[in-house]
Amino acid sequence: MSYEVRGLNEECGVFGIWGHPDAARLTYFGLHSLQHRGQEGAGIVVNDAGHLKGHRGLGLLAEVFASPQTLSELIGNGAIGHVRYATSGHGDVTNIQPFIFQFFDGDYALAHNGNLVNAKSLRYQIEQTGGIFHSSSDTEILMHLIRKSQASTFEERLKEALNEIKGGFAYLLMTQTGLYAALDPHAFRPLAIGQMRNGAYVVASETCALETIGATFLRDVEPGELIRIDDEGLTIMTYTSQTSYSICAMEYIYFARPDSIIKGVNVHRARKKMGRYLAEEAPCEADMVIGVPNSSLSAASGYAEASGIPYEMGLVKNQYIARTFIQPTQALREEGVRMKLSAVRGVVEGKKVILVDDSIVRGTTSRRIVQLLKEAGAREVHVRISAPPLKYPCFYGIDIQTKKELIASDHSVKEIQEIIGADSLEFLSEAGLVAAINLKLPGPYQGLCMAYFNSDYPTDLYDYQERLLK
Asked: Residues 12, 208, 394, 449: which is the catalytic one?
């Protein structure tokens, strides 16, 4: 469920701007709107006339930049920033991005969202030839590959490096003279370009960050593209022609903010349609429909509208409790659910309730929420999930990397229903999910990656192949 996906590791968010005198402050505001993508650490690096300077730390953005002086000292007309939740590497400060690299011929800053499926092999090769890593993150690998390349220009070396890495990635790379953005050949991770009124260009993981700072959306970064932004403007290049669309379906289901637009599809509207299709596929007689705050509210309202059953606020979220997924043990995480969610007895008591949520991962948190509702007097709790069952690992940027983490991998729907204590349980079909998002892009799933539901991975898995087979 919402809290269970966060019980696993979430993705990251990146933001970059070039050509604005208040670049660091705008990057701060942009990252703030991307905070939902990572709460483990944050950092900002600025470019002040070719000199790169940064600040990073563990915690939420507001905690890392708690002192106003910290941000005011980051002066420059270019900046990149990052909010992190680890999909690769450990959660210590050495892995907090953006990374700064200082070489005899120039300085660079690098930030990354995603996960490389051949990182282990590449790291081994690099270390065998004398390479030294300063973090356990797979992000650092790109810079090693750039420096190893024998190509004649920096851009040729960068393109060569991008063709060596495999998996899901959205990179921001700042040099002393400009900013580069690169997206993997399948567009697993979203990346959007905008422009400020003064002409400055902005790149961000989601369009909501562009809206926050008043930038106008220009275009999405397409699969296999390399974008250069400098004082001359914006240049669009490609580093490979072997591209296809496999946009992460979980962006629409859960990760992205409701007001974001990914490849022309508004996330809220997609989630609402998921709820509508779910109501058609899995109807239920009940007194009310409720959603689990916050990412499932859109789907719950769609289910209510399609079914004609009233939508009610049966669960209340305490916004001031630390996110449950940060708790180090499952027991503490489950207790965190009770601290963070309350059932509204005056609404649900004596009623048949349809509980709509976006997914079930382990099942333990689902059981706790059903229990909360029944303790508050709900006569029946019918669970409806606005996505297909999560059965398979993701290796492209969500840290669901073993089947044992997923209750649906070895339990039937009926068994899951009994485990969580629901009176009934139904999931949205794969066809219903694809139709609800309605990307209309080339590919078997209209341009979506659906591997978490059916194991149809759009790429070779390289270092993870053996793990999947196990």
From this structure: 12
